[in-house]
Amino acid sequence: MRMRPTMTWTPAEDLPPGTTDPEPVVDALMILSGAGLSTESGIPDYRGEGGSLSRHTPMTYQDFTAGAQARRRYWARSHLGWRTFGRARPNAGHRAVAAFGRHGLLSGVITQNVDGLHQAAGSGDVVELHGSLDRVVCLSCGAFSPRRELARRLEDANVGFEPVAAGINPDGDADLTDEQVGDFRVVPCTICGGILKPDVVFFGEAVPPRRVEHCRELVREAASLLVLGSSLTVMSGLRFVRQAAQAGKPVLIVNRDPTRGDRHALTRIALPLGAALTTVADRLDIPVDDL
User: Fold this and answer.
1) pTM of the model
2) Burial readout 175-213 (b: 16 or more C-beta within 10 A, e: otherwise)
3) For a Cys-Cys bond, which of 48, 54, 202, 273 suits 93, CB 3.0-4.6 Å?
4) Per the residue annotation, which of 56, 79, 118, 130 is the catalytic one?
């Protein structure tokens, strides 16, 4: 029997309440960001209020590789979602993180997001823990290609495909019915004819070990860890919180809702990300550039 990946988490203990004072953030140097940081850019998160998991089950690696119909459904929804997803712009939270980096306050940024908004805001050396929707990889020959190139090919193969989606999800997947997906045509790798997949880590898929070890090294070298907008439900991010806490490094979490990592944190700041980070930047007299 195939096990489903962990997608939800319910606190099994009483957790300390969050504070609304963002002052402790000024001492955090390593950033781990999650979907909550991008909600103010119009990209919903998975688990917060109104999160997409209440109406949407993300594609798993096992389902994607198991059958052509699952891939047809995924690429139809993702192709439509990409049009909206690609128009998202960095918000005040992304710009504040970039400003902190320019002023030498950060030792690095690890993001669980696949939207590229940290880089668009000007952050450098961002580790994309779960990959990026900007890239496509062939599961047969391993060749990478730009997502915009695939988008053009899918447009040509599906002239007139213009369904109206009920919503867009954090993975760029649009909510479409099977009837709306219809007989959407999926295109193969141009090099070997193999199966194409976005260069992102699906639910049920492991983060590449070398990437994990790189992130662990960044956490080892950091003085403290600041978590922005992640529920830390999945182990891919929680492991770094546990690592920092076990090493005696301060862990700070900015998230409006309780997280799976709260018991490891010095404090949780229960404020919207943009407001909290902009307030910190103002207190440090650091300008947050508008884009």
Assistant:
1) 0.85
2) bbeeebbeebebeebeeeebbbbbbbbbbbbebeeebee
3) 273
4) 130
